[in-house]
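To close the section, here is one more complete example, presented without commentary so you can practise reading it yourself. The ligand is iron/sulfur cluster.
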Amino acid sequence: MQPFRTLTSVATPLDRVNVDTDQIIPKQFLKRIERTGYGEFLFFDWRKDPAFEINQPRYKGSQILVAAKNFGCGSSREHAAWALSDFGFRCVIAPSFADIFHSNAGKNGILLVTLPEDQVQTLLDRAATTEGYKLNVSLEDETLIDDQGFSAKFSIDPFRRDCLLEGLDDIGLTLRHAAALDSFEQGHNSKFWLAARSQ
Amino acid sequence: MAAKTLFEKVWGSHLVAEPANEPTLLYIDLHLVHEVTSPQAFDGLRMAGRKLRRPDRTVATVDHNVPTTANRIIIEDAIADKQINALRKNCKEFGVELYDVDAPEQGIVHVIGPELGLTKPGMTIVCGDSHTSTHGAFGALAFGIGTSEVEHVMATQCLPQSKPKTFRISVEGELPQGVTAKDIVLGIIGRIGTDGATGYVVEYAGSAIRSLSMEGRMTVCNMSIEAGARAGMIAADETTFAYLKGRRSAPKGAAWDEAVAEWSNLQSDPGAKFDRELVIPAEDLVPYVTWGTNPGMVVAVTDRVPDPAKAQSDSDRRSFLRALEYMDLKPGTAIEEIPIDRVFLGSCTNSRIEDLRAAAKVVTGYHVNAHVRAMVVPGSHQVKAQAEKEGLDKIFLEAGFEWREPGCSMCLGMNPDILQPGERCASTSNRNFEGRQGAGGRTHLVSPEMAAAAAVTGHFTDIRQWEFKGEEVLA
Ligand code: SF4
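Output:
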């Protein structure tokens, strides 16, 4: 996983609440067996509209998406995180995120920044009205600033932060506890009422 | 000892490690696998040279992609075919049992888990699918995961998890006639919103929940994710044990009695504290129909399409207007006057035998409206076989429904079963997102009974007013 430290980029506004993962990447693109190549299908149906933000040349190359509440709800498809990251987004800012998307994003090196609704609204408005509007996000300092005087602290789970900063792989982290896992499993195996199949 | 919630009991018995400043490592008892969210996970294992730790705790089937037409051994969609073949190859290589298209056990992963007795009280269950919450109906802790987590479970049989908060939703009293498990959960989502339970595990309680069959409980837990919940759970009781007894993977003989004794403790203790509570009187619930593009946009069947002026915030108003435009509806239109083109009876929410029985009862003696195309897609081969044994297939076919092979089908339209742009569908599935059932398609979520009635009349119809013909046929 690519480590995440700081990022300065044009911000793309997506002022819609409850953006679900079916919109982020529609089902017809879930049949592929690879992890890459989903970027071109990001927001496939919405992108048919030339006015849709992601299509606008002014947001080209943007790596920061500013969204409204409950971003990433619905299906657990990690393809949504793959599509965002493959398209070039490395950070999404919103007032709230759905659970499974939250975890999928982290595992793909995408930083999710949660800020109060009024602050996000300010960013959405500025990104929509100011051509070339940029944000700077620092995960080390947990700060988000623009050049119009906006400055906010955000907080993120310290473990998730370390993983992003170092680009750590979860399985490797878990295997540090292999001895605990082996001994737990030995005891747990005797609980036949929790076995998948009857013996 | 402090009083514990059901969730805390299951959580507490699966703690592998609780490292400081890190998420807890939670042991996983059962991992259900399907074709769409697994290929990249198997690849990851291969690339890292890792083994699948517990094939005996892993079960795979094909459901999302498979055609639901007869003779489906040959899959015409080359990319879908490749994905299914990848699962076959992966299961063979890693020693995972696979219920393939033609296996008698095949079906939607959340239908077959319970049906085969794989799902048991007190277990932790995961699957790369958000509706894994279904299995919580058995007093299990079951939740959907992404593909990286699928790989993690394959490699380690555990998952790093932060501890969710608890939310008890009690539905008290007797359900009014015509109000189903689907209406309970639509009513709940309508009240708390699509993010109303984000960060929580919901325990459904109260006399109306207790009185539900296992299949009804599964319908309720299934849609927990539509309120944003990590999982939904219902305490294990006699109904749970009666359902499980004798199923293939359930313990037998003396082991059964011992297992029941273990499971009998799987309720929240009196006085257990929840982070949040909500009580809903059952008598307030009615048959519901969603009008918009998320499951929280829901009204009573006798109601009208709501007015965006009543939205609570600017952003809500905008999403409201967008939904109305997408759904091609005008505020103030009576729900019962909305004509439909398609009916889909199926999905992991409502494709079990009781759902089919209830719908068949409604259509007996009637015919599908001339303007409507209606299909029934049983949740599994077992459900299909049972329905055929009871003659339900004949009732549906005579009434003009299509009777198809099991799978996810038009719940998400990954296979050829999709809505055409602009088509309006009464669906027993769980998501009415834009394009969910096909690009440009318009989905209204309802109970199986309401879907069946709409198929006959060609528009949404209050099931409480339905004139049942020939109940004796099915008695
Ligand atoms: S039936 Fe629908 S919701 Fe259920 S597992 Fe299949 S696609 Fe997902």
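Once you have examined the tokens, check your reading against these statements. The mean pLDDT of chain B is 95. The radius of gyration of chain B is 22 Å.
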